[in-house]
Amino acid sequence: MNVLVVGAGEMGAWFGGCLSTSVAYADRDRTAAEEAAATTGGRAVDLDTAEQFDAVCLAVPISAVEDAVVAHADRATRAVLDVAGVMEPPVTAMRAHAPEHERVSLHPLFGGEYAPGRIAVVPDATGPITDEIRSELRARGNDLFETTADEHDRSMATVQARTHAAVLAFGLAREPVREEFHTPVSKQLSTLTDRVTSGNPHVYAEIQSAFGGADEIAAAATRIAQADDETFETLYRDAR
Questions:
Q1: Are 58 and 8 in contact (CB under 8 A)?
Q2: H or E stretch at 158
Q3: What's the pTM value of the predicted model, to 2 decimals?
Q4: How far is 6 from 162, CA to CA, in rounded Å?
Q5: pLDDT at residue 231 above 90?
Q6: Rounded distance, CA 61 to CA 79, Å?
Q7: What's the distance, Cα to Cα, between the start and end of the chain in Å?
Q8: Is the peptide bond before 176 cis (omega within 30 degrees of 0)?
C-alpha cells in the first residue's frame, strides 16, 4: 500500500508517521513536505503530482478540506481519508468526488505532540485499505471509536469550540497572582490556559469559526454577572 498525505503540518506528519507503508507528502510549502518526509522516513512530492496512490489522506485546515478533496481525490485509486477535524464537509465532498472509493474521516482528539490518544472515526465506506490504516493507528496505541459526521460536529461545538472559548475568556480576564494564592481549581485552569495558548492560534481560530460556541459562553457569563444570589444558586445547579 502506498499513501499520499496532502498537508505536511503537525497532523499530516503524525498520520504519515503512524503508517509502516510507503508514504509521500505534498504541501504548498515544499520544505514542510521534505521535513515531514525526513522525520518519518517518507518522501516529498509536488502538490500537483501526477502519481497515483492507493490512498490519499487530506491533512489540511478545516477551511480548506472541501477544496482539497476536489483537488486530490482523483490521485487515489482505492481510498480517500481526512484528518481535518470537521466531518460533515469532507464526508459530503468525498461522496461526491470519490463515490467508488473507500471513504473514512478521522479526527485525532489531540495534538501531534500528545499522541497517542482517542480518534473519532466516521467509516463512510470501508474496505481493506481503510481497515489496514485503522489497524496501524491502533497498533500505535491510539483508541479509535466510531461516530457519525453529524454527532461528531455537534459534539465539537462543546468539547472544542465552547471549551476553548471559555478557557481563552479566563486567560483574558485573569490577573497575575503569586503562586501561593492558587487553589487547586485555579491552578488547573491556569495550567490549561497556558496549554491552549501555547498552541497555533490559526488552528484554534479555524475551530472557532467552524463550530461557533463563543456567543453561548458570552451569554452564560453575562447571566452569571447579572445574577442575584437566588438566581446564582439556580445557575450553579443548572451547570452541575
A1: no
A2: none
A3: 0.92
A4: 29
A5: yes
A6: 20
A7: 49
A8: no
